[in-house]
Write a structure and sequence with these properties.
This protein is mainly α. The protein has eleven helices and no strands. Helix 2 packs parallel to helix 6 and helix 4 runs antiparallel to helix 6.
């Protein structure tokens, strides 16, 4: 988020230099206006979980050893140990995915505030600093989440093992199924969506990109240039 200050440091001493943004930024004291307050508070509520999610993802260890043992020596003890180890991890992965849905819902709302009206991107930056700060925090979260995810291949391995085990449990006898701890409350449809989410190299960036595309498509009354120029400015944040 601090890179937003780089907007103030560009040299426009010649005609070929990028535009200089002469804006005073005061994120420490930025407060939403009355008209922005509802969106600001909604975004703030969602982003309260962001730091904890990054912390949990950064410490994600996976169940690789237990899964390997269950596959190479599939006796009851190894299979049960792998399953018990994977269950809380899947619960975490579900919470990360659920957060992506919340992010997907708030992005169009904050873009609506930052892209609508007659103001230029620079004017939005100057007069709506509380929302600009929040959008910068969203971008920062997205980049960090995807960075951690790319460094954690265990995520897809764990979830793949979970799905295979759930499928086997559905086909086994009731007695065998009852001998294993219950799976988290993840429907087949949600599991499919989670699998697609984690299969992407940068899942949160994909969510952000798709939410932005939908915002543009569903708000045709807002000139597309307003959105692209605002995002171009924010990309230099």
């Amino acid at each position: 988020m601090g890179k937003l200050l780089s907007l103030l440091a560009r040299d426009d001493s010649n005609c070929c230099s990028p535009q200089k943004y002469d804006v005073f930024l005061d994120f420490e004291n930025a407060q939403p206006t009355e008209s922005e307050k509802d969106v600001y508070e909604e975004v703030e509520k969602v982003m309260l979980s962001a730091e904890n999610i990054l912390e949990e993802l950064g410490m994600y260890k996976g169940a690789g050893r237990e899964i390997r043992e269950a596959i190479t020596t599939p006796n009851e003890d190894h299979v049960r140990r792998a399953w018990v180890t994977v269950l809380p991890l899947v619960t975490k992965l579900k919470s990360f995915y659920d957060f992506s849905l919340e992010l997907e819902a708030i992005v169009p709302k904050i873009l609506g505030e930052l892209c609508s009206g007659a103001m230029t991107p620079t004017q939005h930056l100057e007069t709506q600093q509380a929302l600009v700060k929040q959008f910068a925090e969203i971008l920062e979260f997205v980049l960090k989440f995807d960075e951690y995810k790319m460094k954690t291949p265990a995520i897809q391995n764990d979830f793949s093992y979970y799905r295979r085990t759930v499928n086997r449990m559905r086909m086994c006898s009731r007695d065998q199924e009852d001998s294993m701890p219950s799976a988290p409350d993840v429907s087949v449809e949600v599991a499919n969506r989670m699998s697609l989410f984690y299969a992407h190299a940068t899942p949160m960036l994909k969510v952000l990109s798709e939410a932005t595309s939908r915002f543009v498509q569903e708000n045709s009354e807002i000139p597309i240039e307003n959105t692209t120029e605002t995002l171009s400015t924010m990309a230099k944040v």
